[in-house]
């Protein structure tokens, strides 16, 4: 049995928590770095990899909600390329679109990209870490690359397993601001290395939704059924809106404070078949939409208040991207002389979508009313796809779809502390279409 190398991608995107002090594993810059051509090209490659990965996950998860972070996934795989050789390195470079860059300094460019992204107001934490068995000999050249460019400090696992689990889970809990606890229940028996990547996102809406306007509204799960969800509402909401260049989808861009936004793709008619849209996703499409297709204006906006969470082993999806070698007979001799094999690539992501965005303070002074026929309506009441981007670089931070919000209702704490005393805001009431003459 080969020694095991495990990749764990720990992601939490929180848009409804109190603002705490910022902490960066990637060093903060006194002056915000400028966006270079190399960074823009890398962001496009990272987006295309993310769309490929999303399509592979969607193929094996029909009808399910999806939420994932292309950024943390590509980051931890980029760390692997520093230790890969031969066909393994070539396969990783192809999947990550690094071969398109012709950039020998891709790792340092990745470092610059992350520093640029985390220098804004919305992303508060991003971190990477290597946990290794104490008797494995990791090559200095590999450690130099991952420490200098990804700030992934190595930490030895000394045992016993209970203490190692506690150290790993404590790191995860800290870097995700307490959103992911007790992530690992046990360690693989032959574990030699553990590569971790985490991002904690806080995005405060540029214009927050007024809480008193949130009310139960029907969400059409499919052509036959609908379910009640808490729907945020604003009668005068500034957005950039337009249409997909060749598919029947409305597109709206909602701004966070700082250089981040959310792009929502909403079908004209209720449908559970988003395949054509998913196949169309590319960095070129995003560039086309944001540069020429979307126009600024006010809309009447309805947006579900929800929480998404996904925990998934990405091994099968990565196999579809030509990375099956990672799990069979990879060449990682630039990491260690020991033969290493990837056992799992586990991805965990959560997102809260609420009225405030990231912080409950600073309410905007905008007049709100229940009816305003002057502005067009953008009502997210059917299955939709969304992504969150860093606009300064074009980097796709998060990507997902909502097919059924019934299990994605936000829980609000009634008490001040602890996980007890929570109430569910989602209603869960579902109507099935029946042959009647009334409404």
TrEMBL record:
The keyword Signal applies. InterPro entries: Serpin_CS (IPR023795), Serpin_dom (IPR023796), Serpin_fam (IPR000215), Serpin_sf (IPR036186), Serpin_sf_1 (IPR042178), Serpin_sf_2 (IPR042185). It comes from the Eukaryota. GO terms for biological process: negative regulation of angiogenesis. Residues 421-433 have a biased composition (Basic residues). Residues 409-439 are annotated as: Disordered. Coiled coil: none annotated. Residues 51-405 form the Serpin domain. One of its GO terms (molecular function) is serine-type endopeptidase inhibitor activity. Pfam families: Serpin. Residues 1-16 form the signal peptide. Keywords: Signal. The keyword Acetylation does not apply. One of its GO terms (cellular component) is extracellular space. Belongs to the serpin family. This is Putative serpin Lfl_SpnV4_1. It comes from Lampetra fluviatilis.
